[in-house]
Design a protein that fits this description.
Low-confidence stretches: none
Mean pLDDT: 96
Number of strands: 10
Strand order of the largest sheet: 8-7-6-9-10
Oligomer: single chain
Largest sheet: 5 strands, parallel
Number of helices: 5
Strand content: 25-35%
Radius of gyration: 17 Å
CATH architecture of the largest domain: 3-Layer(aba) Sandwich
Structural class: alpha/beta
Bound molecules: flavin-adenine dinucleotide
Length: about 210
């Protein structure tokens, strides 16, 4: 689900950065988690996309309990490495909810009139589970589904053949998703000859 936050006096973020949301219970117990920003810097609000995990402590609270008008404690923007400057050609590779910071990059490129700089490949279990699916498809992103066929393509993961036409020297790759996805996708890129220094990775946590 999308959360759009009005953050008073905020520092403008860069595409790829995240915020930390901290919840505090009445007894003083706190829990905090990171959420990538989906909105571009020019958006007056900070948009987060939270995937609800059934046994998740913070994501269930954000998805089920928080209502418009509530106040949340947030810290950010955070992150200096997994950011896109809006100038360098980039290949964005996302798995599941890992597309969120990549959507911020896409939206930033649109604000700058530079969508030509980006190529996007994403992997999701099903199209219905992919955040911002319509926006990604409209941008021309390659979308592969691992649990259902898509057109003539059977269910399956991203392959080297998917990425070969999308990467070229001088292009920085931004890989984001679960730990398992991030490892697999960055390995694919390295096997294609992408220099390790041109692969930037953000891991969201569990193996997914
Ligand atoms: C830099 C960064 C950016 C992130 N951006 C986003 C974002 O944009 N949107 C988003 O939804 N999440 C994002 N995450 C993940 C988020 O911080 C939480 O880990 C996630 O919401 C789960 O928290 P929880 O309290 O609900 O679950 P927890 O109570 O921490 O965990 C509940 C169960 O889910 C498993 N689990 C924990 N994390 C994940 C995960 N990421 N995927 C699958 N299973 C998991 C645990 O092993 C456990 O079994 C990001 C993480 C990082 C580090």
């Amino acid at each position: 689900m999308e959360l759009r936050l009005d953050v008073p006096g905020r520092v403008q973020h860069l595409a790829g950065q995240h915020y930390v949301v901290r919840l505090t219970a009445e007894d003083g117990y706190t829990a905090q988690r990171s959420y990538s920003v989906a909105s571009p810097p020019g958006d007056p609000l900070v948009e987060l996309f939270v995937e609800r995990l059934d046994d998740g402590e913070v994501s269930t609270f954000l998805a089920d309990v928080v209502e418009p008008g509530d106040r949340l404690e947030v810290r950010g923007p955070i992150g200096g490495w997994f950011v896109w400057d809006g100038e360098r050609p980039a290949l964005l590779v996302g798995g599941g909810t890992g597309v969120v910071p990549l959507v911020a990059m896409l939206r930033t490129a649109r604000e700058l009139g530079r969508t030509d700089l980006l190529r996007i490949a994403v992997s999701t279990r099903t199209l219905a589970e992919l955040p911002y699916a319509d926006e990604l498809l409209d941008s021309g992103a390659l979308v592969v589904t691992t649990r259902e066929p898509r057109g003539v393509r059977p269910a399956g993961r991203l392959t080297p053949a998917d990425l070969v036409p999308l990467w070229e020297p001088g292009r920085t790759a931004y890989v984001c998703g679960s730990t398992g996805f991030a490892e697999a996708a960055s390995q694919l890129l390295l096997e294609l000859g992408t220099p390790a220094a041109d692969v930037r990775v953000e891991r969201f946590g569990a193996s997914g």
